[in-house]
Amino acid sequence: MKPECKVLLKAFEAISSIESKYYEEDFPEMLSYMYLLLKGYWRVKEEDGVTEEVKTPPFTAISLLNTMRIITERIRNGTTIEEIVTEKELCGDVEEV
After folding, report:
1. Using CA atoms, how far apart are residues 62 and 55, in angstroms rounded to an integer?
2. What is the pLDDT of residues 25-76, one digit of tens each?
3. 43 strand-pairing partners
């Protein structure tokens, strides 16, 4: 299953707000992490700081990371994240069941 476009766009915007040139090698991992964070699959409990899983994502972490690597490569080759989201080639919004 593809990452949701609207969440991917939010994740990219969140990462773009930091100085990403220092994290060039880690960018796909950061994008994957931010996507999962924004999607809300894990949350940190305020009272004890423990991270807990809210629900299981509909894809494996490896497939998500591979998708984010392809997206990162396309971004570095000049494609904008908005173009990727509009094309829906690497992402696709799904209806909530």
Report:
1. 17
2. 888 998 998 888 888 777 777 888 888 877 767 778 888 889 999 999 998 8
3. 52
Beta strands in the chain (DSSP E): 42-44, 51-53
Is residue 62 exposed (0-12), middle (13-18) or buried (19+ Cβ within 10 Å)?
exposed
Mean of per-residue pLDDT scores for the chain: 83
Q: How far apart are CA 8 and CA 22, in angstroms?
A: 21
Cα dihedral across residues 66, 29, 50, 41: positive or negative = negative
Alpha carbons 39 and 1: distance in angstroms, whole number? 14
pTM listed for this prediction = 0.74
